[in-house]
Amino acid sequence: MSDSAIEVDGLRKLYGDTVAVDGLDLTVRRGEIFALLGPNGAGKTTTVEILEGYRRRDGGRVSVLGIDPAVVHGKRGTSTDPTARRWRERVGIVLQGTGEFDELTVGEVVTHFARFYPGADDPARVIDRVGLSAKTRARTHTLSGGQKRRLDVALGIVGRPELLFLDEPTTGFDPEARREFWALIRDLARGGTTVVLTTHYLQEAEALADRVGVITAGRLIAVDTPQRLGDRDSALATVSWRTPEGSWESAQSATPTALVAELAARFGGEVPGLTVSRPTLEDIYLSMITT
Ligand SMILES: Nc1ncnc2c1ncn2[C@@H]1O[C@H](COP(=O)(O)OP(=O)(O)OP(=O)(O)O)[C@@H](O)[C@H]1O
């Protein structure tokens, strides 16, 4: 079995004259959490939808769990085509916001979706994992925005997928729900699930991803761990402190430890208001997409 869950080589997608994806190369390893970052319109959703078998491509080579998703395009999980059916059973998808199923309750919807998968998880357990147990009997149209999103996630994982796609999964979540969601995703990854997510929350990418990829104008311009992206780990540190007169000073340094030692000697001990910081993932990301 290949080490890669996803292999993409020279992917291209046009909408009329618009080049949405322009020769994109990407490898996602089995078992990793991979975050795709990029500005609005960069081509993330188009790329992910091609990988999910929901959109046709115009060029390039794509393999997802060993299958070209073009083969399953237009064939649903209930399809009689055995290749399409088996592949769809192995892939979980959380699209950008659905979460409403007329008069059905949360419990009914999750139980209904579970029937599509031979190895489905227990619906009650899944509802509990996404923090919706108290809403099991609630009709889906009565859920809040964040609760509908949790239901989307429940439907994405109820089939116990090998590979899970999450498109902006925590939009509308409150901070506590977001942290609970991160714990759930880490738990799935520990259990061997490969996770590909798109997000505009850099903090989310940093908290979750083993590697991040930055897409601009339909190309992948950088791939690395959140800690090393754009040489972040070797970027200059900013040291700030308060002077005896009460004003603030700061200096950039490649050797912040030495600078702090020097300041400590100068102050004869504690340095007032001392902070040492490196560029955040957001700083690095913004410098990448604006150059
Ligand atoms: N169905 C479509 N028809 C025509 N153009 C489209 C279609 N879908 C996307 N595009 C265009 O393709 C480009 C890439 O869009 P895409 O939705 O993949 O970007 P994205 O990175 O997911 O953006 P966002 O962060 O806003 O979700 C954009 O220029 C968009 O306008």
From TrEMBL:
<dbReference type="GO" id="GO:0016887">
    <property type="term" value="F:ATP hydrolysis activity"/>
</dbReference>
<dbReference type="GO" id="GO:0005886">
    <property type="term" value="C:plasma membrane"/>
</dbReference>
<dbReference type="InterPro" id="IPR027417">
    <property type="entry name" value="P-loop_NTPase"/>
</dbReference>
<dbReference type="InterPro" id="IPR017871">
    <property type="entry name" value="ABC_transporter-like_CS"/>
</dbReference>
<feature type="domain" description="ABC transporter">
    <location>
        <begin position="6"/>
        <end position="242"/>
    </location>
</feature>
<dbReference type="GO" id="GO:0046677">
    <property type="term" value="P:response to antibiotic"/>
</dbReference>
<keyword id="KW-0067">ATP-binding</keyword>
<dbReference type="InterPro" id="IPR050763">
    <property type="entry name" value="ABC_transporter_ATP-binding"/>
</dbReference>
<keyword id="KW-0547">Nucleotide-binding</keyword>
<dbReference type="Pfam" id="PF00005">
    <property type="entry name" value="ABC_tran"/>
</dbReference>
<dbReference type="InterPro" id="IPR003593">
    <property type="entry name" value="AAA+_ATPase"/>
</dbReference>
<dbReference type="GO" id="GO:0005524">
    <property type="term" value="F:ATP binding"/>
</dbReference>
<keyword id="KW-0046">Antibiotic resistance</keyword>
<protein>
    <submittedName>
        <fullName>ABC transporter</fullName>
    </submittedName>
</protein>
<dbReference type="InterPro" id="IPR003439">
    <property type="entry name" value="ABC_transporter-like_ATP-bd"/>
</dbReference>
<keyword id="KW-0813">Transport</keyword>
